[in-house]
Specification:
This protein is 72% helix and 4% strand. It has a two-stranded antiparallel sheet. By secondary structure, the protein is mainly α.
Length: 153
């Protein structure tokens, strides 16, 4: 049997890595990780103490106990303050991504679509006006010849 001209495993892997969307995805992951660190620091250093100020502790410390007192091996601790802190971090991250990235990009893409539609509309107008001019030229030539019913000598 003859061997087909298929790319080698290494060539296929290189082609996969060199695609634009793979590199864009890698950049997005790195930027997302760095951004997550910033949001976590803001939540832990600013938001948690402010929310905790309504109580007596930092938000991460709030917990409840099931089955007895919270101490030693007897009670089961529910760390709801950590869950609330993580939820706040998620909401803040989602809000920043939406208002600073998604919303401006959506507005930009909408403006681009409007411009493209306007250009296409202008192109259609030019095509229609050219067609009208050609019809007028045809009608003028027919009128000069004496009308559509007259035969030429």
């Amino acid at each position: 049997m003859s061997k087909k001209n298929e790319p080698s495993l290494w060539e296929g892997f290189k082609a996969f890595l060199m695609r634009g969307n793979v590199i864009d995805l890698a950049v997005a992951v790195v930027i997302g990780a760095a951004f997550t660190n910033i949001v976590n620091a803001v939540v832990k250093g600013v938001i948690n103490p402010i929310v905790g100020a309504f109580g007596t502790k930092d938000l991460e410390v709030y917990k409840s106990c099931l089955k007895g007192p919270c101490g030693g091996d007897e009670g089961i601790e529910i760390l709801w303050g950590s869950v609330l802190s993580a939820a706040l971090g998620f909401v803040i991250t989602a809000a920043v991504v939406y208002f600073l990235m998604v919303l401006p990009m959506a507005k930009y893409l909408a403006r681009q679509a409007e411009r493209k539609a306007a250009r296409e509309g202008a192109a259609e107008t030019v095509e229609v006006s050219e067609l009208e001019v050609l019809k007028e030229i045809r009608d003028a030539l027919v009128a000069q010849r004496g009308g559509p019913g007259r035969a030429e000598p």
